[in-house]
Design brief:
By secondary structure, this protein is an all-alpha fold. The chain has helices at 4-14, 16-41, 46-53, 57-64, 72-81.
Length: 92
Amino acid sequence: MRTWENYKDHVRAINEEDRRNMEEIEEISDIVSSIIRRRQELGISQCAFAERCGLPLSSVTRIETFKTMPKLDTLIKLTRALDLKLQVAVVE
């Protein structure tokens, strides 16, 4: 496989469960990437961000490096600390 997109297409084609897992990973990656981008736009260090969220620095670091998947309550803390709002939308 030549590219990451080729690999993702391959995984999606294997079976339905793998396709859903790949989509979930991509959605979480998009959310976390948006959080990182916003934190950097605001010029907030990971340490200051962790304090704002009431989380250990190690947790923020693991989330931002995609080593752990944040739970919903953690995502809400992260987004609120950056004046963002987590929303659910219907996908058509």
